[in-house]
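Minutes, project check-in
Item: structure for the 155-residue chain
Input as provided by the requester:
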Amino acid sequence: MDHVQGIEKNLLEFEIKEFLKKKRAQLFALSLKSDNNLSIENIDKMSGFEFESFLEEIFTSIGYSVENIRDTKDQGVDLIVEHHGERTAIQAKRYSKNVSNSAVQQIFSAKKFYNCDRAMVVTNSDFTKSAKELAKSLNVELISGLELNKMIKNR
């Protein structure tokens, strides 16, 4: 096998692994979404990738069009959701601790980069006091685990 064929084989293997990873996360998110007992405790067990896919399913189920940004150079955006012509840049943070200022700073600057109208950080946990203060001054929406749990229960 020559060098080019080896590269093509490696690329194909990578693409297959990424496709399967995405499909597993989507199936996991769908199974949780359909589970009437879904709670923040279930979400705490997800990987970051599964959490993004789960949020994608939640926003889709409430009528948003969703674009999942699967790029290492995503500028801090995981999802872009659109509803009635309004675009929102979302950073998903599945954390065991409180989310800090850096997530707010990243999504605020990414909002402009992706030409969005709004910016939001969604987490399964909570936010530090300074993150809440910064988000308020920058008009970045914060969705904590408690609020996310309410969204899930009310869908």
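Outcome recorded: The chain is about 55% helix and 15% strand.
No further action items on this chain.
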